[in-house]
Design brief:
single chain, 176 residues, alpha/beta, Maf protein, 6 helices, 44% helix, CinA-like_C
Length: 176
């Protein structure tokens, strides 16, 4: 596979390797990506060593009822929000017993939704002692926005695990 698909596959494989080295389990919560993050991870042989599962929370009420996103926050901001993305990642990790949670939420298009332009995306990753969020403005059609969100959340998770492990892949100082 080449192009963006190849980059996603390579990033997914690297993330799974980093999680396995650190004995961490992954869980995914997805909205606009509709399962593509989990599918990208599952496509890598051996993913079951660290991937616990994923929740596609496409409907706003599922974000609250299943993932535990603050319902009042959802009413106030809607689902395209930094805090919502972080809470989705936390919820996925919690319900699946994983140390690392990844989340995507946003508008894939083709047009705007809930006052947000197509391509506005929030991704989040939570890990032991850390969380990270990025707001993205992705260009292109619906497929390109979704693929861009998948690539971005996998990269963010990989960066977080690489940072927590140190440049050589070993555990941080003071940890086994």
């Amino acid at each position: 596979m080449d192009g963006l698909g190849g980059a996603i596959a390579a990033t997914a494989a690297g993330l799974l390797e980093a999680a396995a080295r650190q004995d961490l389990r992954l869980a995914v919560a997805e909205s606009l990506t509709g399962g593509q993050v989990a599918a990208s991870l599952v496509a890598v042989p051996g993913a079951s060593r660290v991937l616990m599962g994923g929740v596609v929370a496409y409907a706003t009420r599922i974000k609250a009822e299943v993932l535990g996103v603050d319902a009042q926050r959802l009413e106030r901001t809607g689902p395209v929000d930094a805090v919502v993305a972080i809470q989705m990642a936390e919820g996925a990790a919690r319900i699946m017993g994983a140390e690392v949670g990844l989340a995507t939420t946003g508008v894939a298009g083709p047009g705007p939704a809930d006052g947000h332009e197509a391509g506005q995306v929030h991704i989040a990753v939570v890990a032991p002692g850390a969380s990270a969020h990025r707001e993205l403005r992705l260009a292109g059609d619906r497929d390109r926005v979704r693929e861009g969100a998948v690539e971005a959340v996998l990269l963010l998770a990989r960066e977080m695990l690489d940072t927590s492990a140190g440049a050589d892949g070993s555990a941080p100082a003071g940890e086994p």
